[in-house]
Every structure is written in structure tokens, then in C-alpha cells.
Amino acid sequence: MGKHTGFLEIDRQEARYEPASDRIRHYNEFTVPLTEGEIVRQASRCMDCGIPYCHGDTGCPVNNQIPDWNDLVYQRDWERAALNLHSTNNFPEFTGRICPAPCEEACTLNLEDQPVTIKTVEQTIADRAIKNGWIKPQPAKKKTGKKVAIVGSGPAGLAAAQQLARAGHEVHLFEREAKAGGLLRYGIPDFKMEKSHIDFRVEQMEAEGVTFHYNENIGVTRTIENLKSNHDAVLLCGGSEHPRDPGCEGEKLVGVHYAMPFLVQQNKRNGGENVDDLDPILATGKKVVVIGGGDTASDCVGTSFRQGAVSVTQLDIRPQPPEKEDKLTSWPNWAIKMRTSSSQAEGANREFQAATLEIMADKMGHVNGVKCSRVDKARKPVDGGEFILKADLVLMAIGFAHPVFEGMLEELGADLDPRKNLFADTMSYKTSVDGVYAAGDMRRGQSLVVWAIREGRQAARSIDFDLMGKTSLPR
Asked: Could you tell me which residues come within 8 angstroms of residue 319 by beta carbon, excluding any fewer than 6 positions away?
């Protein structure tokens, strides 16, 4: 695969970023692409490693054939590389931008801290395919006469809808918001992924026969029973949206918000949607404290800087990880090591082993500080470890617990798993209610976009098989 001695001759090279002082002045993507020659050289580093962990479940949930398209890029056969990439992943331009790249963690060359730049190559293939017009609608040649309803147009719903439409089914996709994309559009900031990429796929899918229904909150605007009675199958891909509660005093103070309303507002502003009916949540001129150490917290950091925050401090209850992971205990799985996102690199103060004890208020009931404490390995406050951070805005970003039950799921009455997600196995994706399936975060819990795409594709295969008695859709 690639150049047999490429990994010995060529160093890993990553895409560059605009300087932080420039990129915080706008909400656009700020990656400076590598040249074609540089990408070809990086792809050529893919070695003939015998067991390519990069495209197994430990490395790539959609099982991208990474060595194959790296080799095609090395040969400069970009169109075939694009065909190969799209055979396993409906939306590689999404994952090439926002996936944390477990494939690179699993790369054999990561044993030497020099994994192939798989994510960058993937994005380049996808972008080049779109730019050159190689990505065209693939409407089914023959219709099956079956109707499928999909609830939620996040990555799981989009992937399932595209697969089922190409199989010849009449697909209706119901979305609560005014535009498609789910958290891809409303949760992930534009500076990580501009929304034109979603718009391109929506146009492609409409040409393939998918009908999008916007401003449809199933369980509110129409019942789930309505969908069941008018369709041969229903697939629920509504996501996991109930936020985890930090469980500290002061959560209801003025100036304290969960992360998602903050991010959604800004994404709607960027997209030209009307937010006049919402109370504005803005970091402009404020000292911001973000509670949480994950990707959503990092998105809050970057958005706060772009809104003009005076300072941003991020609290992480976990201990500060080592700069370098222990290869013998982590490889080829996701490694515990110090990671700094592009948003954190824009000037965030990071506090590790820091628990939030209380959110403090001034005499007017507005947040003015956060009382914290250092914690031990059991995440219990240690004696003498207390400290106070000044804050005008506190954003709680500690993840999502389970799907929202009110409305659709209450009406459905399907079984839940022990974590309160909608129960469905990973072979049939069937819920306990006949004719209703579930995929993505609503089924598996909060996870990665690439896992949602995988589940959407696999659920589509299960539905197609159940409706037709056979299927040609890949698993």
C-alpha cells in the first residue's frame, strides 16, 4: 500500500491553521489545506502493515478501506479513491472535518507517534470529488412501493435516508428544526464545519427522492401513531439531547446556561435564522467559565472567543493526562493523553481535577463566580483545594444523559435500555414496538458522528431486508 518505503522517508505532516489572532475574528473554517503533492506524499506513508487496525471497529466504525484509498491517492487516481471512500461512508466531508480520527490512533505507525494523516487525506478526497462534480445523485432505477419515515436529520437519519432511497423506497425525513443536519448544523460550530457541506448533501438526497419535512416535532406537531399508520417502517434517529446535570447549587442563576442553547443560537445566527424570540446568550465582554472537558465544552470555548469574551476558563474534573500515552496499554484503542483542541489553543485557561461546588451570585441574582475544588482520584474534594473563579457567564457542557422522553417517546412507549436510551439491538435495530426501529445516539447514547453514520447505514439495511425479504445494502 502506498510507497513501500514511504513511512521511512517521509515525515508526518498535518494541515495548518490560520493564526488564532485571525481566526477568532470569524466563524468560517480556518484550516489551511495541504497541496496536492503534500497529500500524495502523506498517503504514500501508508505501509503494508499486514493487519490494518485503522479500518477495523477499533479504528473506523464505518470500516473505511483506508489502505486502499491511500494507495489510490498515491497513484493519483482520485476518482477511484472517491468511489472507494463513498462505498463505506455517505458523508466523508463531514467525518474528514469533525471526526476525532480513532483510525490514526489505531494506525501501526502511531507506535512511533507518526500515524498516517488519514483524516486529512479523507477530507481532501471528499472535497476534491465534490469540486470536480464526481458526486452525483443516484436515484433508484426501480421503486419498491414501500414508504419509510425517518425522524431526525442528523448523521444517522441522513445516512439511513440516503441508503433507503437508493434501494428504491419512498423516504420521508422529519426534522424538528427549520433545516436539516441535527447537531451537525446546530451543535457543531461553523468554524469546525461550514454548513454548505450539509446543504450539498440535502440537494443530492432530494434529487435521489428523499422528501424533507421541516419544523415537524414528532409527538407535538404530529403523533408517532400517524407515522406508523402511514408508513411501512419508522426509523427514530432523534439523538440524545437531555443534558447531564452537574448537580451543584446555583444552576438556575441568571447567566448560567447549558451548552447546547448557547451553541444553537450562534449557529442559527450564522445561518441567517431568526433568533429574535430567544433570550440572547452571548459571551461578549464577559468572563466565561465552561464546565466540562469534552468536545462540546471545547466548542463553547471557541464560540466564546469569537463572540468577544474577555477570558475563558474550562473546568475538567479529570486529572491532567500525560503528554504521551502508554502504547502498551492503549494501542490500538483510543489513548489517554494530553490533547489540545484548536479552540483551547486560542487562549483558554484549563483547570484539571477541578469540581464545581457552587455557582455564586451577586445581590441581583446574576452569576459572578464559580466555587471550585481540586479533587482526588475518586473525584472527591480535597482539603484545602477550594478556589473561586470570577464569572459573568457559565456554560454547562458535561454531556448528554439520554434522549428526550417528552412527546414522541412517551407516546411510543417502547422499551429503554439500562441507560435510558431507546432499546434496539445492533443487528436488527428493531425497538420493542413493531415496525419501529432506532439508530444513532437515541439508541447508543452520546457518541461520534462516524458511529451515527454507521448505525444509520446498518439500520437501513435491516429495514430494507424486513420490507423486501432480501437486501443488497451493505452492513
From this structure: 352, 353, 377
- For the chain, what percentages of helix, strand and coil (3-state, to nearest 5) are there? 35, 20, 45
C-beta separation of 247 from 383 below 8 A: no
Chain centroid, CA 190 distance in Å: 13
* 171 neighbors 6 (Cβ within 8 angstroms): no
Residues comprising the chain, all counted: 475
User: C-alpha angle with apex 376: 371 to 381, nearest 5 degrees?
Assistant: 30
Three-state SS at 415: coil
DSSP summary character for residue 15:
P
The proportion of the chain whose per-residue pLDDT surpasses 90, expressed as a percent, equals 93
Q: Does position 247 have pLDDT exceeding 90, yes or no?
A: no
Helix (H) or strand (E) holding 242: strand 242-243
What is residue 1's predicted lDDT score, i.e. its pLDDT? 65
Amino acid, single-letter form, for residue 12: R
C-alpha cell at 455: 448505525
Whether residue 170 has pLDDT greater than 70: yes
* Span 430-448, pLDDT tens digits: 999 999 999 999 999 999 9
- By the 10 Å C-beta count (0-12 exposed, 13-18 middle, 19+ buried), 18 is classed as middle
CA proximity to 348, closest of 388, 391, 290, 292:
290
| Distance (Å, whole) CA 338 – CA 361 | 33
Distance between first and last Cα of the chain:
25
Q: 2: Cβ–Cβ under 8 A, 6 or more apart, which residues? A: 43, 44, 45, 46, 47, 67, 70, 71, 74
Dist CA 347 CA 359 (whole Å): 23
From CA 435, how far away is CA 429, in angstroms rounded? 11
Contact 401, 243 (CB under 8 A): yes
Is residue 97 packed enough to be buried (19+ CB in 10 Å), middle (13-18) or exposed (0-12)? buried
Q: How many CA atoms lie within 13 A of 289 on its CB side?
A: 25
Q: Extract the C-alpha cell encoding 407.
A: 412527546
Q: Where are the beta strands (DSSP E) in 326-405?
A: 349-352, 354-361, 367-375, 381-390, 393-396, 400-402
Strand partners, 388: 371
Measure the CA dihedral 408/412/418/421, to 10°. -40
Tell me if residue 194 falls in helix, strand or coil: coil
Band (pLDDT 50/70/90 cuts) for residue 29 is very high
Q: Compute the average pLDDT of residues 254-262.
A: 97
Instruction: Report pLDDT for 136.
Output: 96
DSSP state of 246: -
Amino acid identity at 237: C
